[in-house]
Structure formats: structure tokens, C-alpha cells
UniProtKB/TrEMBL annotation:
Domain AB hydrolase-1: 5-116
Signal peptide: none
SUPFAM superfamilies in alphabetical order: alpha/beta-Hydrolases
GO molecular function per UniProt: hydrolase activity
Key words, A-Z: Hydrolase
Keyword RNA-binding: no
Keyword set includes Glycoprotein: no
Pfam families the record matches: Abhydrolase_1
PANTHER family: SLL1969 PROTEIN
InterPro entries: AB_hydrolase_1, AB_hydrolase_fold
Name of this chain's protein: Alpha/beta hydrolase
Amino acid sequence: MNQKVVLVHGYNKNSNDMKVLKRNLEKIGYKGVVVDLPLTYKEIEYCAFVFEGIIYEIIKNLKPNEKINIVGHSTGGLIIRHLLSTSKYISKINKCVLVATPNNGSELADIAGNMSKILINIFKTLKSLQCQEVKALKLENSHEIEIGAIAGNRNNLFLGYLLSDENDGRVTVKSVKFAGLKDFVVLPYGHKEIHYMWETARLIDTFIKTGKFI
């Protein structure tokens, strides 16, 4: 039986952005499931509530001993962590991988907030990505689900030059890493390309199978 992998897109994207990763994982032997979340104008808490409803629909159709894996790119990883910190479906989740996720908040979101309160009040997901807002979510690792994180360090985007630390053009490497990860790896890709790369799919497969990237 092919293991199911639920793929969660990032800020201001939709399920189309995860279809390359879906195809790559299906070449390895997984069954990919992409979702759509309102990750532009809604707060992370609301999007996480919507996601939990989607997960319920997926889980209720699983066989008794079947579990799902969940992979998120960028803000999608925070949606996954929110689910893990609050969900009653933990027993049906195998492993999770977060790709280029600002687990400690987005410095660019902080800069946007300092520049324009109107902007972040319209783009509420962006407001939710501010460092203090992410901290306030209290995304505790009070479960036994193994989580791996993949960061990129190819700063090939203009906004990346506003960041002082090693980054992928949107998110710093140090923001991706947090206490409680089972494993962590850095790849030489930018934020908008990292989840399209075959190497990323291969590492996700390795982590699901072994709990390690290498």
C-alpha cells in the first residue's frame, strides 16, 4: 500500500504550488494529496482550523492501521505544527517534514509590519508570520510525532538582501530550525524553488522511512 503524504502550500499560494513535489513523491511510490488553504487574507489560526477539517475527511477514510505523513512548504509548515499542537488525530499521523518554514517567525513580516500596519491588517496571514505572533501560537512539541525540517540557503531573491543572516531569499536558516526537531538539513536552494527539487523529495522519503535525512 502506498503511504499517503498530505502536502500543504505556503503564504499567498494554492495547491498548484505543491504539484511538482506531489509528482516527485509519487514517482518514489507515495500517494500525494494537495490541499487549498486561505493563506493570504486569513490568520494562521483560522487556516489551521480549516486544515483540521480537511485532515478529518482524509483520516476517516483510512484503513484501521493506516497513517498519513504531512509535508508543508513555508507557512504550510506552521499550519502543520498548529495541527500537531492541538489535534485529536495525532494517532493517525506518522511523520512530518517542514520545508523552508519560518518556525521562529519571519523577519520580513516584521519589516512589513513596521512599514505599514494597513498592509498586515489586510494580508492577515502575513501578520501571523511576525516573530511575536508565531511565538504567541505556542506551537509546543507535546507529542511523539517525528518532525524533520529542511532549510534553503540560496539567497536568490531581492527581499533576502534585507536579512542579515544566511537565508533562502525569504526565510533565514536559523528561523527554520527549532528545538524538538528529529533532524535538520540545509540545501543550496532558494525559497521559491526548494520544494520543486528532486533532492527535496528524496530527503522527504528518507526521513519518512528512517527518521533521518541522511
